[in-house]
Amino acid sequence: MENTTKSGFVSLIGRPNVGKSTLMNRLVGQKIAITSNKPQTTRNKIQTVYTDERGQIVFLDTPGIHKAKNKLGEYMVTVAEHTLNEADVILWLVEPTTFIGAGERHIAEQLKKTDTPVILVINKVDTVKKEEILLFIDTYRKIYDFSEIIPVSALKGTNTKDVTETIFKYLPYGPMFYDEDTVTDQPMRQIAAELIREKALRCLEEEIPHGIAVYIDTMKERPDGTIIDIEATLVCEKDSHKGIIIGKQGQMLKKIGTQARREIETMMETKINLKLWVKVRKEWRDNDTQLRNFGYNAKEI
Question: What is the pTM of this model?
């Protein structure tokens, strides 16, 4: 019997902070990837799954491709560049501009090494005048031979359906990889840790967030099934950071905890009792063992 459904892997790439996670959450229809207005929010490759009657798209949301400054940075770039060769379609997300910087040129060079169809998505078009969009399309067209170019606003949902349609156009026919009710391959512990990190990124000062990792110490459902108890540790690099994360009389940590608990409850559809601790691990971003402990894949470090 001939396969009538299409399915495949789509790598979502782009420089840090162009809106990749926001777009993926919009396309999948619910929140999977954490978002904040700080760069380097996404550290691991997140797989999310979109299924409808046409077939299945497995999105690989990668860390932004950038020039690395430490081992964590190098790891993130390696993950992103590996993904280019694993995908059936590449979705490259960029900002609406007529200036193409070194970062975008670096990505264009990486793309020239693959034969995968590349769809350019110009995001944040809600922030510019309509008549300027053609200029941006023309600018990007000069640096790479794209299969398609789609202007969108991930935040407002403008043209995002066109993105899904265009992806299906380029996917191969084949059976689905996941059950149709699967939305992500991330274990719940990892999603909980990422949501806590997102709240920390949003609540804290500019200088701290990159130096934060979160791991779940325990996650247990109570015997009567009414509440899940989660204990988690926020790891930072300096004693002074620890003080800022805890805040005056513990106010900041309480704020991070309250916001994270609400979101984890929504995600897991159950009551959560969340306890947070803060520890200092100096230079953890340059330590292979520490990176492995925080769930970054050893093979790619």
Answer: 0.57
